[in-house]
Amino acid sequence: MKKVREKTAKKRSKEEEEEEEEQIFNFKDKPAGKEEEDEDLSDSEESVFSGLEDSGSDSEEDEKESDDNDDEDDDDVTAVESKQPKQTEEEEEKEEVVGGVTEREEEEKKEDEYEHDSSDEEDIRNTVGNIPMEWYKDFPHIGYNLDGKKIFKPIRNKDELDDFLDKMENPDYWRTVHDKQTGSDIVLSDEQVELVNRLQKGQFGDVNFNEYQPSVEFFSSDVMIHPVTNRPADKRSFIPSLIEKEKVSKLVHAIKMGWIKPRRVEDDTRGRFYDLWAGEDSSILGRHKMHLPAPKIPLPGHQESYNPPPEYLFTEEELALWEQQDASDRKLPFVPVKFSSLRQVPAFSRFIHERFERCLDLYLCPRQRKMRVNVNPEDLIPKLPKPKDLQPFPTTQSLVYRGHSGLVRSISVSPSGQWLASGSDDGSVRFWEVCSSRCMKTVQVGGAVKRPVCLSTCRPHSYVASSCECGRAVHQVAWHAKGDYLASVMPDHSSHLQVLIHQLSRRRSQNPFRKNKGLVQCVSFHPVRPYFFVATQRSVRIYNLVKQEMTKKLQANSKWISSMAVHPGGDHVICGSYDCRLSWFDLDLSTKPYKMLRHHKKAVRGAAYHRSYPLFASASDDGSVIVCHGTVYNDLMQNPLIVPVKVLRGHVITHDLGVLDVTFHPTQPWVFSSGADATIRLFT
């Protein structure tokens, strides 16, 4: 009996353990009928395999003995049962009810033990871990459970139409979430929806949590008698640490050796607002090989001070000259003004305009990198011959022709070089003997001779003065080389009759142009070919008189042409302008100036070539006549040689006017000049 009871107790204990394991690992509850079937199966399995557990340790004799003992025990049990009185059916039902209640209570307790699980772990039915579920898109399963078996994907036959109908008909569609781990749809409860809404609003998940609850201060504001802690300070708190000293020394050594580089502290504001041109060298552009830094603004000088020295203030003449000049030609963009104190200085009216122009210069003006070459500065100077080697040329003032009472605007020398004619604003034309500077004859023309006095190259007794057939003032007269033709210039913006060509033999005049091509300044005939030069304000047009067409247009690159002269060879032209420039043109080379001479400081009034010597001269309002050597070679591959040789001075500047006209002697290296001081001077 004892053995039977022990076996039955062992069986019951094993059954209870198996039931607990099944309840632990089975998340879904099974029906009561199935549990009874499982218990029966477990009993049958134990009855089948109960003998196998002890088969490995007992021999055949022990098995026989145990069988005999079992038979004896069974007989004893039957005997005992026969001796015990039978129970009534009511008592058996009561015992079953009592036993059933106890068993159900135990099951409920076991279920309640895992119902309110406080763990934060997610559903661990799928054990693939935190991986992209896209890896399983080509497989029929979606993962593995705890037993290592595949979790197959649920069959989803919904298309877009079914999804739309579900959206319109299913009231819980908006709270349905697809679980990628299990491939199923989960309907959120009201508590879960409320939790999601609170988290989206930035609130705490727990409704009962009070974020504004009063904090408990550890230290109160009241001064206590006794300190909170009165522990004496450690010895290491006021003695330098040897370990830290060793670490610091190692770091210092590493920094000195360059093994450790300190961190660069970058300014946060630089990423948002920074000066574009301040840190060019340290910026990305500064490290670029072809980067060109922006030019710096020159520092302010004494003239920009609110109390400049007296020598920096403008006089009335300087102020009038500053106002007449163009903005690009002014040395200063402002007029220096003196104030008694800094408080009286007004705001700069052109400040925004000036800053805007600076930004445009930085943004739009192109920059060019100039490659530096180690060259001796003396090698850059052209090797010009010495002036002594280029003689003869006029160097000294020999004679002064006096007699006019007004500005002498025009002079002309006879072909023989014996006579000189001059026209003045005093209304007279005078004839002078060149060698003696004596006035041989004076002719009153009844008006100021503004420009044209010209002696014919073939007829010494012919001259043209200040009037013509049309009743307008003649600005210039030019003779043809043969002496039968002459051209007159009458500038007028509104008329095309600005240039007339007169023929003396037939006594007739003609207008060569039908249209107005601009304000004509001066004209000239080609010395050899049938070409006619017409100079306007900014260009020189060359016309072929035989073909009656324009052959070339020269761009002077100046603002206003004042005078023009043609080389005796006919292949070179010089033009003087009111912007202090003298342009040399090579007709066989280009339509642009071959060389620009800026030797004068004021407007150039006249220019002339010598007929036989390689000389040309220019007259200016600065009171000087500059004589230059200009050799023209027959070899077209060799450029002309232009060398300034002498600056001749002698005229007195009157009413801001200096030398008004210049011409060479036809046979000698002499030059005549007429000025605003009513004199004519001969330089030999």
From TrEMBL:
Is the Transit peptide keyword given for this protein? no
State any single GO MF term: ribonucleoprotein complex binding
What's a single GO BP term from this record?
maturation of 5.8S rRNA from tricistronic rRNA transcript (SSU-rRNA, 5.8S rRNA, LSU-rRNA)
The record's subcellular location field reads: Nucleus, Nucleolus; Nucleus, Nucleoplasm
Q: Extract the InterPro entries matched here.
A: BOP1/Erb1 (IPR028598), BOP1_N_dom (IPR012953), WD40/YVTN_repeat-like_dom_sf (IPR015943), WD40_repeat_CS (IPR019775), WD40_repeat_dom_sf (IPR036322), WD40_rpt (IPR001680)
| GO annotations of cellular component type | nucleoplasm; PeBoW complex; preribosome, large subunit precursor
Q: Where are the WD repeats?
A: 401-442, 652-684
Query: Do the record's keywords include Cell division?
Result: no
UniProt similarity note? Belongs to the WD repeat BOP1/ERB1 family.
Oligomeric form and interacting partners:
Component of the PeBoW complex, composed of BOP1, PES1 and WDR12. Within the PeBoW complex BOP1 interacts directly with PES1 and WDR12. The PeBoW complex also associates with the 66S pre-ribosome.
Name the UniProt record assigns to this protein: Ribosome biogenesis protein BOP1
**Which species does the entry assign this protein to?**
Scophthalmus maximus
List the lineage, top down: Eukaryota, Metazoa, Chordata, Craniata, Vertebrata
